[in-house]
């Protein structure tokens, strides 16, 4: 291989590495943002679940409190 070929290949590898670094950083930022979004959604779900329990207690009676169905 000539020196020009080696230099050309080295330039190409350096360019590819720079693009890969940029993609990795972009993906890392996106994953971090999605992690925060997921945490916010879980917290919102937890709060909604608590509010739902507080607003409407279950209308289902326990098995001991339930009268037998009419066909018994």
TrEMBL record:
InterPro entries: SlyX. Residues 3-30 form a coiled coil. Residues 53-72 are annotated as: Disordered. Pfam families: SlyX. Keywords: Coiled coil. Belongs to the SlyX family. PANTHER family: PROTEIN SLYX. This is Protein SlyX homolog. It comes from Marinobacter guineae. The lineage of its organism: Bacteria, Pseudomonadati, Pseudomonadota, Gammaproteobacteria, Pseudomonadales.
């Amino acid at each position: 291989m000539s020196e020009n070929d080696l230099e050309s290949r080295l330039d190409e590898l350096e360019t590819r590495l720079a693009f890969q670094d940029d993609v990795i950083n972009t993906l890392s930022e996106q994953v971090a943002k999605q992690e925060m979004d997921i945490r916010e959604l879980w917290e919102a779900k937890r709060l909604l679940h608590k509010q739902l329990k507080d607003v409407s207690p279950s209308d289902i009676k326990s098995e001991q409190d339930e009268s037998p169905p009419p066909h018994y």
